[in-house]
Design goal:
Blueprint lengths: L32 H19 L5 E4 L4 E2 L10 E2 L3 E5 L4 E2 L2 E2 L3 E2 H4 L5 E6 L25 H9 L3 E6 L4 E8 L2 E4 L8 E3 L4 E10 L2 E10 L8 H49 L4 H7 L4 H9 L1
Parallel strand pairs: 2-7, 8-9
Antiparallel strand pairs: 1-4, 2-3, 4-8, 5-6, 9-10, 10-11, 12-13, 13-14
Length: 296
């Protein structure tokens, strides 16, 4: 009797992160987005405290900006990865903001930043809102909405994969692409800061990060970086204090040794029969100093 072995087709291997969708509309697109938002918000804190001592500003991180009423509602919203709105309360009637509703706030964000996981085509999409046929709506592109409808003063697109950064400024009816300064940064005058790229490590990730600098080109530090700098400064101050204390003690010891040596010399010379005047002349001292030293 011949045994027949059936062929079994093995299932394909589980896909890795490069084969899975970047987003289903609810989760962020990559592991850098969340820490990238935090580093921008955290480091800008001291500047915003100067501009808004009353705390009247809001920062959105992957939060919706509703710019038109439609069904379903989310079709009338864009969600920048990071945006800042000056002169609005951080919450509404004591409740945490769930979104930013333009037709109720009547104030556009000063700056919006998109972290592009791909080549930035989605973030540069200038497709206008249109109704080609009855009941059909062409969804507008993100760039068009920010430029023509919401009217965000500054718009930055950072391509995470390539490290490319573009910044646009609203001039008249549309956006004008800005040119970086000699440091490779883009000046945001209302905030008196510059936006640029920084290579370094943050939250266990070493790569290019979008960061702020002041107008003099000094990197704006995060809270942990400021604490680290302060700790290093305090450590240096303590080392300097200890070194000064050691130097003082050594100087006192040297002086005491010198005094004791002179006292021993005076005692020896007097024991040899020299007069007080002779000892004083030999040691270039006054007789009073010799007398005082010999009595200590």
């Amino acid at each position: 009797m011949t045994e027949t072995i059936a062929k079994i087709d093995l299932p394909p291997p589980f896909p890795d992160h490069t084969q899975l969708p970047e987003s289903d509309g609810t989760f962020v697109k990559n592991f850098q987005e969340h820490p990238q938002s935090i580093i921008l918000t955290d480091s800008l804190g001291p500047i915003l405290l100067q501009i808004h001592p009353d705390g009247q500003y809001a920062i959105g991180q992957d939060s919706g900006i509703y710019w038109r009423e439609t069904e379903p509602p989310e079709k009338g919203a864009e969600a920048p990865d990071w945006f800042y709105v000056p002169n609005v309360p951080p919450d509404l009637n004591g409740q945490i903001r769930r979104s930013y509703v333009l037709w109720r706030e009547h104030l556009a964000p000063l700056i919006a930043i998109e972290f592009a996981s791909g080549n930035g085509d989605e973030e540069r999409d200038r497709t206008p809102l249109s109704y080609p046929t009855e009941g059909e709506v062409i969804r507008p592109g993100k760039f068009w909405v920010y430029e023509r409808i919401i009217r965000i003063a500054y718009y930055a697109i950072y391509e995470i994969g390539s490290g490319k950064l573009e910044v646009y400024s609203l001039a008249g009816a549309g956006y004008q692409k800005l040119t970086p300064n000699e440091r490779g940064h883009y000046l945001i005058p209302p905030l008196k800061v510059e936006l640029g790229l920084w290579q370094g490590s943050y939250q266990n990730q070493t790569q290019l990060w979008l960061r702020w600098w002041d107008e003099d080109g000094n990197l704006l530090l995060t809270g942990s970086e400021r604490a680290e700098v302060e700790s290093a400064r305090a450590e240096r101050a303590e080392v300097a204090r200890q070194e000064a204390e050691v130097a003082r003690q050594e100087a006192e010891a040297a002086l005491a040794a010198e005094v004791q040596a002179k006292r021993n010399t005076i005692s020896r010379l007097l024991a040899m029969g020299l007069t007080l005047a002779q000892v004083a002349e030999a040691l270039n001292m006054t007789e009073a100093e010799v007398t005082a030293a010999s009595q200590d």
